[in-house]
Each structure stands twice: as structure tokens, then as C-alpha cells.
ABC transporter permease (Thermanaerothrix daxensis), 325 residues
Amino acid sequence: MKAALNSGLLRRLGRQYFLFSLLLLILGVIINASLQQNFFKPIALVGLLRTYLPLVLLAAGQTIVIIGGGIDLSVGAIVSMVNVILVTRMGADATQSQVLTALALGLLAGTLAGALNGACIAFLRFQPLVTTFATTSIFAGIAVWILPRPGGSVPDFFMQPYRSAPLGITFPLWIILGVALLWWYLRSTRFGRYLYATGGDPYAAYMSAVPVEWIKFFSYVISGLMAALSGTLLTMSIGTGSALIGLDMTMPSIVSVVLGGTALSGGAGGVIGTLLGVFILAIIRNIISFANVPSWWQTLVNGLVVMLILAGPGLWALIRGRREA
């Protein structure tokens, strides 16, 4: 009977990576709290949310692309491009109308970047990995052209909402709640159903009259828009610009998606799991920092820990297979 119970538990864990991610998050919180004494204090939690909020939006857009069977390596470069557009178009003394104009340009640039990726991949049948690797250089080059050296500033009133707490709830929580609600709505729409079908089996989806090309195209458009919003929030957070600031965000966005249970093969997963994945990644980095790991080892340790965690589903499947055998 005990063996049957263990087998049933393993089977459920193997099917529900979401549960695995949740257990991993709880374990990470426990370890982090033991190392960081003020971890549960509001100021520490809010600081963590503010730090990783741009990654939440970036990973959410990446999730939609991956569910649709693609991948987007250019999101970090789009973040940088939008960041420098906002900084150079605003300035510390910008008026409200100038801020709105800069925001419109930044969001438009991110959306057009996503549309370029989508058009090349969906209609010209380019490989997603190669295409978005190439457009990374294009968008990063545009960012360097706009702002060759780090610097610039934005008005204080533009940054103020990022540190506000409407109705007593910190701004990052409102954004995270909004992302979750938008995903819940999108998943229930025809586009959401078609997205899973396209990522799961594009040929079968095409034979079932699913507009596979347009679904892929719009998944990249959404990713570009989310990257633009991520760049906007990042600018609100730091108040300055750099053409390289977003490049290191691409890999964490993909790792967060995988940690949240979305299969890189497409057709499975969701944004809610990705939110858990972002928090897991944030806590891993916190643990490494508070464990007094020397700075020159942190990148190596971070990579090894993430690789071990990503191996979790495979280990569960291996254990489950041996149990059933």
C-alpha cells in the first residue's frame, strides 16, 4: 500500500510540474529565511518584487512564444532599445506630454521589433533560434546608436509610481496581478486555444483550420510588447539608460519559463507557472548572495544550481518510470 501511495505521488508530481515548482519555491523561501533574518519583513519583500518585476513581464511574453512552439532570444536587446529611447526622449526636465510621447515611441519600437521577428519566423519560415539571435544584434546595435555611453535621466514623476502603493498594495503586486488576470483571459480566448494547438502540433493545428502562421506572428508581437513594457518598468526603476542593460535578462527569462513548467517543445505550460519560476530564480540568487559565496564564484554556482533544478522533472520521470516498471 505504501508503495502504491508513493507511486501515485510520483505520478502526480511528474504530470504537474506546477506542483514541483511550488514545492521548490517553498524550499527556497525556507532556506532564504534562514540566511536572511529580515526576509519576511515588508521592506525586504517589496524590494525583491521591485528588483524582479521587469523580469516578470519579460518572462510572461517569453512564455507565450514558447507555448506557441518558438523562442525569442532578442527580448533582452528590445529591453535595452526601449530603455535608451525613453531616456533620450525624456530627460530630467521632460513635460508630461514629452513623457507620453516617449512612452508611445518605446512601446511602438518594442511591438515593431516583435512584429519583425514574427514576420520572419511565421511567414518567411526562418528558424526562431537563428532569427532572434540575429535580430538581437540589430536591436542592440540600434540601442548603442541611440545612446553610445550609459547615462541620461528621467523626470522624478515618471519614477514615482514604481515606488508607490495604491490602496496600500505595492505597485509591483498590482502589475503581477494584472499579468495573471490578462493571462487568465487570454487563455480562455480562441487565440489562447489556438496557441496551445500550434505549439503542440502545428501540422495537426493547420489541418484543423487553425491560422498557424498568424498565431506564431502575434505571439512574437506580444513578446515584443511585453519586452517594451519590461524596459519601461526597468527605466522607471533605475532612472537612467544603458544600451547593454537588458542583454543579461534574456537567459533568466527562458530559465524562469522552464522553471515554471512550460515545455521548450511548446504546447504546454502557462504564465502562472512562469511567475513562480521568476520568484524561484530570485530566491536562488538571494540565497547565493546571503550565503557569502565569493562574487567571482556566484555566476558559476548560479548556473550549476539552475541546471540541477531544471533536471528535476527528468529525475522525477526517471524515478516514476522505474517505479512503474
